[in-house]
């Protein structure tokens, strides 16, 4: 069952997301519903009648609706006034993004530099290949002597 899998296997890695998605809307609706229910409870419990003894039932309901609208307006004002992401978190995220971009630029620079070095090596190797086909002063091909020198270097490096 699922409980057995959770106890015996490794916890899955979390995924990075921008926000909580649909749950944000659910929480907003629950907040609105809470304001409406609490204002209705104030009218039904009789506390509003004690606070305003001269109001009729219709006037109490109108007063509850006005209070409810005022609280909802305050809720929306506060939700827009308070940022979703604190300033210090935005600053840290900007620093991380800056460092990521700098590392990417450095990596690209090193890749370009490495590709230039390999191009230089391949062009140098092509030049050596041309030299191999030349003959020495005695008329013998120098390719065999170059190959033997390379073999000797390889043996020396392996012995080290």
Question: Keyphrases for this structure?
Answer:
single chain; 160 residues; mainly alpha; 0% strand
Largest sheet composition: none
Order of helices and strands: HHHHHH
Report the structural category: mainly alpha
β-strand amount: under 5%
Taking pLDDT < 50 over at least 5 consecutive residues as the criterion, the unreliable ranges are 135-141
Nearest-angstrom radius of gyration?
Answer: 39 Å
- Residue share in helices? over 70%
Quaternary structure classification: single chain
**DSSP strand count:** 0
Question: First CA to last CA: what distance?
Answer: 59 Å
- The overall average pLDDT, rounded, is 80
Count of discrete alpha- or pi-helical segments spanning 4 or more residues: 6
Indicate the overall shape. Answer: elongated
Tell me about this structure.
The chain has 160 residues and is mainly α. It contains 6 helices and no strands.
Outline of the structure:
The chain is mainly alpha-helical.
Write the layout of secondary structure elements.
Blueprint: H1 2-8, H2 22-45, H3 47-51, H4 57-81, H5 87-133, H6 143-159
